[in-house]
Fold:
Amino acid sequence: MKTQKPFNHLKGIIQGISSDGRIARGQYEEMKLWCQAHEGLSKESPFKEFFEEIKSVLGGGTMTSEEIDEMKTILKKYESQLSVSETMESKIQMLQGICYGILADEQINKYEIYVLKKWLEENTTVLGLSPFKEMHAILTDVMEDNQVDIKEEKELKKYFLEILKMEV
Structure:
């Protein structure tokens, strides 16, 4: 299913973007880039309808928390048609999307780390496997003092970029 990867990436991006409760301009721009990159897939149902609904939410020029909630509802509506969410491949795609969403505003804060760590812990089927296990260990270390310092942020960005390079 050629639409599963972009669907899972978007699902992760939205989770990453919304994890700290703030939506920066750069994050909105990343969402627009996702739309541009996947417009070619929007010719066939059900991706066509899904894509049009997402694109219409983004049409206003900004992105509010209400619009994020609206997109999460759209994702739920189409999930059974566009993704097999329990596969290892889909978990990695989702993780890539989360990392991408967190990186979109070029800052990593403790709220984003908390949400990512929680997501990993909720996905116990993958927690013992690479790259999930290593990422969880890094996130646990970072959260020991409940803050992300500059050194930790650099390490996390480097690690997130490695996750984004993974082929799935």
The mean pLDDT is 91. Residues 101 and 108 are 10 Å apart (CA to CA). The two ends are 13 Å apart (CA to CA). The chain has nine helices and no strands.
